[in-house]
From TrEMBL:
NCBIfam families per the UniProt record, alphabetical: LPXTG_anchor
Keywords, in A-Z order: Cell wall, Membrane, Peptidoglycan-anchor, Secreted, Signal, Transmembrane, Transmembrane helix
Keyword Transmembrane: yes
Protein's name in the database: LPXTG-motif cell wall-anchored protein
UniProt-listed InterPro entries: LPXTG_anchor
Signal sequence segment: 1-23
Compositional bias ranges of the Pro residues kind: 33-50
Record domain Gram-positive cocci surface proteins LPxTG: where: 194-229
Transmembrane portions of the chain: 203-224
The keyword Aminoacyl-tRNA synthetase is assigned to this record: no
Organism the protein comes from: Microbacterium telephonicum
Residue ranges of the region described as Disordered: 27-50
Length: 229
């Protein structure tokens, strides 16, 4: 009888011990697991910037009576996917087209200036030629050539790969850039009609025929007076 009592007591004690150990181990297991709200709480990093020309611009102004184009090209290419680093300024009226080389933009940024197509200057920087005008038989006359179409409605694009349209227009006809204001000698034969800084502007590719140039009223009156004289 005493042996059975001892065995029963041992069984009860063992059961109690197992229960206590299980209860004590449960909190430790719970503490080792992260709370559900912490799982997946870290946001992934933002994607890198896309290939773009954001920040690029073109400005036009009269400098000593000659139209000058000032440009800035900013190429964002974090993944190196651009297939070219040669920058161009494309001008078109839908029929005619001219490509002006601006230079290499491998460094990510390029800036400089150049004369408007058809404009020219002498060694002192004074205007000797204007788009849509030619010096013929001792006087300046308007012409459909010499990039006269660029004085009308045009569209401009900075192109590297990608490309970006930019606002651009010839200076107002009321400015000195409208055309020649005094009798003078035009650009000498063999001289380059375009000058540029900050880029390679030694070549111009022209596609299409010439369109009728926009006529500057003030300059037309001036030419008529000279002819009557």
């Amino acid at each position: 009888m005493e042996k059975r009592h001892v065995r029963a007591t041992a069984v009860v004690a063992a059961a109690l011990w197992t229960t206590v150990m299980w209860a004590g181990a449960a909190p430790a297991s719970a503490e080792s697991s992260p709370p559900p709200e912490d799982v997946g709480s870290y946001a992934p990093p933002p994607p890198p910037p896309e290939l773009s020309l954001v920040g690029s611009s073109v400005d036009v102004a009269c400098v000593r009576d000659v139209p000058v184009i000032t440009y800035r090209v900013v190429l964002t290419d974090p993944s190196g996917v651009s297939t070219s680093h040669d920058a161009f300024l494309i001008i078109t009226d839908g029929v005619n087209r001219v490509e002006l080389p601006l230079g290499d933009v491998s460094s990510g940024e390029l800036s400089g200036s150049m004369l408007w197509p058809g404009a020219s200057v002498d060694a002192a920087g004074n205007g000797t030629g204007w788009p849509g005008w030619v010096f013929r038989d001792g006087e300046w006359v308007e012409t459909d050539g010499n990039f006269g179409w660029t004085r009308a409605d045009i569209r401009a694009t900075i192109e590297v790969n990608p490309e970006m349209p930019v606002p651009m227009a010839y200076p107002p006809a009321t400015s000195a850039c409208a055309g020649p204001t005094v009798t003078g000698t035009p650009l000498s034969a063999g001289s380059a009609p375009l000058a540029a800084t900050g880029g390679d502007a030694t070549a111009i590719a022209v596609v299409g025929g010439a369109a009728l140039a926009a006529i500057a009223v003030g300059a037309t009156v001036l030419v008529a007076r000279r002819r009557r004289a």
